[in-house]
Amino acid sequence: MVIMAACGQDKDKAQISESTLTGVAIATHSSSLSPEEFRRYSNASKEFAEKLFGNGRLNGSLLVAKNGEIIYEMYSGFRNPRSHKDSITPTTPFHLASVSKTITAMAVLKLVDEGKIRVTDPLSVYLPQFPLPDVTVKSLLNHRSGLPNYVHYMERLGWDKKRAITNQDVFDFIVARHNDIDIGAADRRFSYSNTNYALLALLIEKVSGQSYGQYLHVNLFQPLGMKDTYAYTTADSARSLPSYFHNGRQYAFDFLDLVYGDKNIYSTARDMLKFDQALNSGKFVNKLLLDSAYSPYSFEKPGTHNYGLGWRMLLLKNGKKVIYHNGWWHGNRTAFYRLIDENVAIIAFCNNDSKMIYKTKDMADIFGNYFHDDSEKTDAITLR
User: Fold this and answer.
1) Which of 173, 200, 230, 285 is deepest in the core (most CB within 10 A)?
2) What is d(CA 89, CA 76) in angstroms, rounded to the nearest whole number?
3) Class (C level, CATH) for 94-376
Protein backbone atom coordinates (compact mmCIF):
# COMPACT_ATOMS: atom_id res chain seq x y z
CA MET A 1 0.00 0.00 0.00
CA VAL A 2 1.17 3.52 -0.77
CA ILE A 3 -0.27 6.68 0.77
CA MET A 4 0.92 9.98 -0.67
CA ALA A 5 -0.18 13.34 0.71
CA ALA A 6 0.58 16.99 0.08
CA CYS A 7 -0.67 20.24 1.55
CA GLY A 8 -1.11 23.43 -0.42
CA GLN A 9 -2.60 26.91 -0.46
CA ASP A 10 -4.24 26.90 -3.88
CA LYS A 11 -7.97 27.44 -3.24
CA ASP A 12 -8.85 25.50 -6.38
CA LYS A 13 -7.06 22.45 -5.00
CA ALA A 14 -7.73 22.84 -1.29
CA GLN A 15 -9.71 20.08 0.39
CA ILE A 16 -9.51 17.81 -2.69
CA SER A 17 -8.52 14.17 -2.49
CA GLU A 18 -7.77 11.92 -5.41
CA SER A 19 -7.86 8.14 -5.10
CA THR A 20 -5.57 6.15 -7.35
CA LEU A 21 -4.56 2.55 -7.76
CA THR A 22 -1.38 3.22 -5.83
CA GLY A 23 -2.72 5.34 -3.02
CA VAL A 24 -4.27 8.64 -2.04
CA ALA A 25 -3.05 12.15 -2.84
CA ILE A 26 -4.47 14.83 -0.54
CA ALA A 27 -4.33 18.62 -0.85
CA THR A 28 -5.26 20.85 2.08
CA HIS A 29 -4.96 24.54 2.92
CA SER A 30 -1.53 25.99 3.64
CA SER A 31 -0.84 29.46 5.02
CA SER A 32 2.84 30.28 4.47
CA LEU A 33 3.46 29.33 0.85
CA SER A 34 1.91 30.84 -2.23
CA PRO A 35 0.07 28.41 -4.51
CA GLU A 36 2.93 28.68 -7.00
CA GLU A 37 5.57 27.95 -4.37
CA PHE A 38 3.65 25.03 -2.98
CA ARG A 39 3.03 23.56 -6.42
CA ARG A 40 6.70 23.87 -7.39
CA TYR A 41 8.05 22.32 -4.18
CA SER A 42 5.40 19.63 -4.01
CA ASN A 43 5.76 18.54 -7.62
CA ALA A 44 9.56 18.46 -7.38
CA SER A 45 9.41 16.42 -4.16
CA LYS A 46 6.91 14.00 -5.69
CA GLU A 47 9.04 13.57 -8.81
CA PHE A 48 12.15 12.88 -6.74
CA ALA A 49 10.35 10.45 -4.42
CA GLU A 50 8.67 8.50 -7.19
CA LYS A 51 11.94 8.17 -9.07
CA LEU A 52 13.74 6.95 -5.95
CA PHE A 53 11.03 4.89 -4.30
CA GLY A 54 8.58 4.01 -7.07
CA ASN A 55 7.39 0.47 -7.75
CA GLY A 56 7.26 -0.37 -4.05
CA ARG A 57 10.91 0.35 -3.28
CA LEU A 58 10.04 2.09 0.01
CA ASN A 59 8.88 0.14 3.03
CA GLY A 60 8.58 3.13 5.27
CA SER A 61 7.85 6.83 5.53
CA LEU A 62 8.97 9.98 3.73
CA LEU A 63 7.97 13.51 4.69
CA VAL A 64 9.10 16.85 3.26
CA ALA A 65 8.10 20.11 4.93
CA LYS A 66 8.82 23.81 4.53
CA ASN A 67 8.06 26.41 7.18
CA GLY A 68 6.63 23.61 9.28
CA GLU A 69 4.03 22.71 6.65
CA ILE A 70 4.00 19.35 4.94
CA ILE A 71 4.38 19.66 1.20
CA TYR A 72 4.82 15.96 0.44
CA GLU A 73 4.38 12.64 2.25
CA MET A 74 4.74 9.03 1.20
CA TYR A 75 3.82 6.03 3.36
CA SER A 76 4.47 2.76 1.62
CA GLY A 77 4.70 -0.92 2.46
CA PHE A 78 3.82 -3.01 5.50
CA ARG A 79 4.87 -3.68 9.07
CA ASN A 80 6.00 -7.04 7.74
CA PRO A 81 7.22 -6.51 4.16
CA ARG A 82 7.13 -10.26 3.49
CA SER A 83 3.56 -11.01 4.60
CA HIS A 84 2.06 -7.76 3.31
CA LYS A 85 -0.05 -7.32 6.45
CA ASP A 86 -0.70 -4.07 8.35
CA SER A 87 0.10 -1.13 6.08
CA ILE A 88 2.58 1.57 7.04
CA THR A 89 0.61 4.72 7.94
CA PRO A 90 1.44 8.25 9.19
CA THR A 91 1.03 6.98 12.77
CA THR A 92 3.40 3.99 12.43
CA PRO A 93 6.41 4.64 14.71
CA PHE A 94 9.82 3.55 13.38
CA HIS A 95 12.94 2.81 15.41
CA LEU A 96 14.98 5.98 14.90
CA ALA A 97 18.33 4.23 15.44
CA SER A 98 20.98 6.95 15.81
CA VAL A 99 18.54 9.74 14.98
CA SER A 100 17.62 9.11 18.64
CA LYS A 101 20.87 10.89 19.52
CA THR A 102 19.40 14.22 18.39
CA ILE A 103 16.63 13.86 20.99
CA THR A 104 19.02 12.73 23.73
CA ALA A 105 21.28 15.70 23.01
CA MET A 106 18.43 18.21 23.05
CA ALA A 107 17.15 16.74 26.32
CA VAL A 108 20.60 17.29 27.84
CA LEU A 109 20.67 20.86 26.52
CA LYS A 110 17.24 21.50 27.99
CA LEU A 111 18.66 20.55 31.38
CA VAL A 112 21.59 22.86 30.64
CA ASP A 113 19.12 25.64 29.80
CA GLU A 114 17.44 25.05 33.17
CA GLY A 115 20.76 25.36 35.00
CA LYS A 116 20.83 21.73 36.10
CA ILE A 117 23.84 20.70 33.97
CA ARG A 118 26.91 22.53 32.73
CA VAL A 119 28.36 21.20 29.49
CA THR A 120 31.92 21.98 30.63
CA ASP A 121 31.57 19.82 33.75
CA PRO A 122 33.20 16.39 33.89
CA LEU A 123 30.65 13.59 33.85
CA SER A 124 32.03 12.55 37.24
CA VAL A 125 30.44 15.66 38.79
CA TYR A 126 27.08 13.98 38.28
CA LEU A 127 28.10 10.31 38.31
CA PRO A 128 30.90 10.28 40.92
CA GLN A 129 31.99 6.68 40.28
CA PHE A 130 32.95 7.51 36.70
CA PRO A 131 36.72 7.00 36.56
CA LEU A 132 37.68 9.35 33.70
CA PRO A 133 37.91 12.93 35.02
CA ASP A 134 38.73 14.49 31.63
CA VAL A 135 35.51 13.30 29.98
CA THR A 136 33.05 16.20 30.03
CA VAL A 137 29.40 16.43 29.13
CA LYS A 138 30.41 18.36 26.04
CA SER A 139 32.92 15.73 24.91
CA LEU A 140 30.19 13.10 25.15
CA LEU A 141 27.80 15.24 23.12
CA ASN A 142 30.30 15.92 20.32
CA HIS A 143 31.94 12.46 20.31
CA ARG A 144 35.33 13.69 21.51
CA SER A 145 35.44 11.72 24.78
CA GLY A 146 37.89 9.09 23.57
CA LEU A 147 35.54 6.30 24.68
CA PRO A 148 35.25 3.46 22.16
CA ASN A 149 31.95 1.84 21.23
CA TYR A 150 30.52 -0.53 23.85
CA VAL A 151 28.95 -2.45 20.95
CA HIS A 152 32.43 -3.78 20.22
CA TYR A 153 34.56 -3.84 23.36
CA MET A 154 32.14 -5.38 25.87
CA GLU A 155 31.79 -8.57 23.87
CA ARG A 156 35.51 -8.64 23.10
CA LEU A 157 36.32 -8.31 26.81
CA GLY A 158 34.10 -11.20 27.81
CA TRP A 159 30.50 -10.02 28.13
CA ASP A 160 28.11 -12.99 28.00
CA LYS A 161 25.94 -12.42 24.91
CA LYS A 162 23.13 -14.37 26.58
CA ARG A 163 22.67 -11.39 28.92
CA ALA A 164 21.14 -8.22 27.53
CA ILE A 165 23.28 -5.15 28.22
CA THR A 166 21.68 -2.20 30.03
CA ASN A 167 22.89 1.39 30.28
CA GLN A 168 23.96 0.71 33.85
CA ASP A 169 25.98 -2.24 32.58
CA VAL A 170 27.77 0.05 30.12
CA PHE A 171 28.64 2.41 32.99
CA ASP A 172 29.65 -0.33 35.42
CA PHE A 173 31.83 -2.01 32.80
CA ILE A 174 33.79 1.22 32.32
CA VAL A 175 34.16 1.62 36.08
CA ALA A 176 35.41 -1.95 36.52
CA ARG A 177 37.39 -2.45 33.31
CA HIS A 178 38.57 0.99 32.15
CA ASN A 179 42.19 -0.11 32.27
CA ASP A 180 41.38 -2.91 29.81
CA ILE A 181 39.45 -0.69 27.37
CA ASP A 182 41.39 1.13 24.68
CA ILE A 183 40.31 4.64 25.71
CA GLY A 184 41.76 7.61 23.87
CA ALA A 185 42.63 11.02 25.31
CA ALA A 186 39.59 13.21 25.79
CA ASP A 187 39.02 16.06 23.33
CA ARG A 188 41.92 15.03 21.09
CA ARG A 189 39.89 13.86 18.11
CA PHE A 190 36.42 13.01 16.88
CA SER A 191 35.45 9.36 17.29
CA TYR A 192 31.79 8.47 16.85
CA SER A 193 30.77 6.16 19.70
CA ASN A 194 27.42 4.90 20.97
CA THR A 195 28.93 4.74 24.45
CA ASN A 196 28.78 8.54 24.71
CA TYR A 197 25.02 8.63 24.32
CA ALA A 198 24.35 5.62 26.55
CA LEU A 199 26.12 7.58 29.29
CA LEU A 200 24.23 10.79 28.48
CA ALA A 201 20.96 8.92 29.00
CA LEU A 202 22.16 7.96 32.49
CA LEU A 203 23.08 11.60 33.09
CA ILE A 204 19.52 12.65 32.20
CA GLU A 205 18.17 10.10 34.66
CA LYS A 206 20.50 11.15 37.47
CA VAL A 207 19.84 14.88 37.12
CA SER A 208 16.09 14.65 36.49
CA GLY A 209 15.28 11.87 38.94
CA GLN A 210 13.19 10.21 36.25
CA SER A 211 13.79 7.34 33.88
CA TYR A 212 15.00 8.35 30.43
CA GLY A 213 11.64 7.49 28.85
CA GLN A 214 9.64 9.28 31.55
CA TYR A 215 11.73 12.41 31.26
CA LEU A 216 11.35 12.53 27.49
CA HIS A 217 7.62 11.87 27.67
CA VAL A 218 6.92 14.59 30.24
CA ASN A 219 9.36 17.23 28.98
CA LEU A 220 9.48 16.66 25.24
CA PHE A 221 7.02 14.26 23.64
CA GLN A 222 3.89 15.32 25.53
CA PRO A 223 4.44 19.12 25.38
CA LEU A 224 5.27 18.97 21.67
CA GLY A 225 2.31 16.77 20.81
CA MET A 226 4.51 13.85 19.72
CA LYS A 227 1.78 11.37 20.58
CA ASP A 228 3.20 8.46 18.57
CA THR A 229 6.72 8.73 20.00
CA TYR A 230 8.20 6.72 22.86
CA ALA A 231 11.44 5.40 24.31
CA TYR A 232 11.48 1.62 24.00
CA THR A 233 11.36 -0.70 26.99
CA THR A 234 10.57 -4.41 27.11
CA ALA A 235 6.95 -3.48 27.84
CA ASP A 236 6.79 -2.16 24.26
CA SER A 237 7.80 -5.44 22.63
CA ALA A 238 4.34 -6.23 21.28
CA ARG A 239 3.73 -2.82 19.68
CA SER A 240 7.21 -1.95 18.41
CA LEU A 241 7.86 -2.24 14.68
CA PRO A 242 10.12 -5.19 13.79
CA SER A 243 12.94 -4.73 11.31
CA TYR A 244 14.05 -6.94 8.45
CA PHE A 245 16.99 -7.81 6.29
CA HIS A 246 16.66 -6.71 2.70
CA ASN A 247 15.60 -10.27 1.79
CA GLY A 248 12.65 -10.10 4.20
CA ARG A 249 14.11 -12.15 7.05
CA GLN A 250 13.33 -10.60 10.42
CA TYR A 251 16.09 -9.41 12.73
CA ALA A 252 16.06 -11.20 16.06
CA PHE A 253 16.24 -9.38 19.38
CA ASP A 254 19.85 -9.44 20.60
CA PHE A 255 21.90 -8.57 23.67
CA LEU A 256 22.50 -4.96 22.55
CA ASP A 257 18.84 -4.04 22.07
CA LEU A 258 17.99 -2.63 25.51
CA VAL A 259 20.54 0.20 25.61
CA TYR A 260 18.95 3.61 25.02
CA GLY A 261 20.11 7.16 24.44
CA ASP A 262 22.18 6.12 21.45
CA LYS A 263 19.07 4.50 19.92
CA ASN A 264 15.71 3.04 21.00
CA ILE A 265 13.38 5.95 20.41
CA TYR A 266 10.44 5.13 18.15
CA SER A 267 8.74 7.95 16.28
CA THR A 268 6.88 8.99 13.14
CA ALA A 269 7.86 11.45 10.44
CA ARG A 270 5.07 13.80 11.51
CA ASP A 271 6.18 13.73 15.14
CA MET A 272 9.78 14.43 14.14
CA LEU A 273 8.56 17.44 12.19
CA LYS A 274 7.04 18.72 15.45
CA PHE A 275 10.45 18.26 17.09
CA ASP A 276 12.13 20.09 14.21
CA GLN A 277 9.75 23.04 14.50
CA ALA A 278 10.06 23.23 18.28
CA LEU A 279 13.81 23.61 17.84
CA ASN A 280 13.39 26.20 15.09
CA SER A 281 11.08 28.25 17.30
CA GLY A 282 13.75 28.63 19.97
CA LYS A 283 11.19 27.77 22.64
CA PHE A 284 12.53 24.34 23.51
CA VAL A 285 16.07 25.50 24.25
CA ASN A 286 17.46 29.00 23.82
CA LYS A 287 19.09 30.20 20.62
CA LEU A 288 22.62 30.37 22.04
CA LEU A 289 22.47 26.72 23.03
CA LEU A 290 21.06 25.78 19.64
CA ASP A 291 23.84 27.71 17.93
CA SER A 292 26.37 25.73 19.98
CA ALA A 293 24.63 22.49 19.00
CA TYR A 294 24.84 23.41 15.33
CA SER A 295 28.50 24.46 15.51
CA PRO A 296 31.35 22.19 14.34
CA TYR A 297 33.90 20.99 16.88
CA SER A 298 36.25 18.67 15.02
CA PHE A 299 38.85 19.94 12.58
CA GLU A 300 41.51 17.21 12.66
CA LYS A 301 40.67 16.32 9.08
CA PRO A 302 39.65 18.82 6.40
CA GLY A 303 36.35 18.18 4.67
CA THR A 304 32.66 18.93 4.59
CA HIS A 305 31.67 16.56 7.40
CA ASN A 306 31.60 17.68 11.03
CA TYR A 307 29.71 17.13 14.27
CA GLY A 308 28.08 19.51 16.72
CA LEU A 309 26.26 18.63 19.94
CA GLY A 310 24.07 15.76 18.85
CA TRP A 311 24.00 16.74 15.18
CA ARG A 312 26.05 15.87 12.15
CA MET A 313 26.56 18.60 9.60
CA LEU A 314 27.72 19.17 6.09
CA LEU A 315 29.67 22.40 5.71
CA LEU A 316 29.56 22.94 1.97
CA LYS A 317 32.10 24.97 0.00
CA ASN A 318 29.44 27.45 -1.09
CA GLY A 319 28.68 28.33 2.53
CA LYS A 320 25.52 26.25 2.84
CA LYS A 321 25.05 24.00 5.87
CA VAL A 322 22.98 20.84 6.29
CA ILE A 323 22.14 19.89 9.88
CA TYR A 324 21.29 16.20 10.01
CA HIS A 325 21.60 12.78 11.54
CA ASN A 326 21.30 9.36 9.98
CA GLY A 327 20.77 6.06 11.68
CA TRP A 328 21.19 2.33 11.18
CA TRP A 329 20.26 -0.35 13.68
CA HIS A 330 19.42 -3.86 12.44
CA GLY A 331 17.06 -3.25 9.50
CA ASN A 332 16.09 0.24 10.62
CA ARG A 333 17.52 2.95 8.38
CA THR A 334 16.65 6.56 9.16
CA ALA A 335 17.46 10.03 7.84
CA PHE A 336 16.64 13.43 9.29
CA TYR A 337 17.91 16.36 7.19
CA ARG A 338 17.31 19.98 8.20
CA LEU A 339 17.96 23.04 6.05
CA ILE A 340 17.91 25.78 8.66
CA ASP A 341 18.20 28.68 6.19
CA GLU A 342 15.09 27.58 4.29
CA ASN A 343 13.23 26.05 7.29
CA VAL A 344 12.99 22.71 5.50
CA ALA A 345 12.86 19.22 7.00
CA ILE A 346 13.36 16.01 5.02
CA ILE A 347 12.55 12.91 7.07
CA ALA A 348 12.75 9.32 5.84
CA PHE A 349 12.48 5.98 7.66
CA CYS A 350 12.42 2.32 6.65
CA ASN A 351 12.53 -1.04 8.43
CA ASN A 352 13.80 -3.21 5.57
CA ASP A 353 17.48 -2.19 5.52
CA SER A 354 17.27 0.00 2.42
CA LYS A 355 20.24 2.36 2.00
CA MET A 356 18.18 4.38 -0.48
CA ILE A 357 16.77 6.23 2.55
CA TYR A 358 20.00 8.24 2.68
CA LYS A 359 19.63 9.44 -0.90
CA THR A 360 16.82 11.73 0.24
CA LYS A 361 19.62 14.10 1.25
CA ASP A 362 19.74 15.26 -2.37
CA MET A 363 16.21 16.63 -2.07
CA ALA A 364 17.91 19.67 -0.52
CA ASP A 365 18.51 20.92 -4.07
CA ILE A 366 14.78 21.46 -4.46
CA PHE A 367 15.04 24.31 -1.96
CA GLY A 368 18.51 25.78 -2.46
CA ASN A 369 21.93 25.40 -4.00
CA TYR A 370 23.30 22.49 -1.97
CA PHE A 371 24.58 19.66 -4.14
CA HIS A 372 24.20 20.96 -7.69
CA ASP A 373 27.99 20.89 -7.95
CA ASP A 374 28.92 17.20 -8.17
CA SER A 375 32.08 17.86 -6.17
CA GLU A 376 29.86 18.62 -3.18
CA LYS A 377 28.04 15.29 -3.28
CA THR A 378 28.90 13.19 -0.25
CA ASP A 379 27.99 9.81 1.07
CA ALA A 380 26.09 10.65 4.24
CA ILE A 381 25.57 7.07 5.41
CA THR A 382 26.10 6.81 9.17
CA LEU A 383 26.43 3.44 10.83
CA ARG A 384 24.27 3.05 13.93
Assistant:
1) 200
2) 8
3) alpha beta
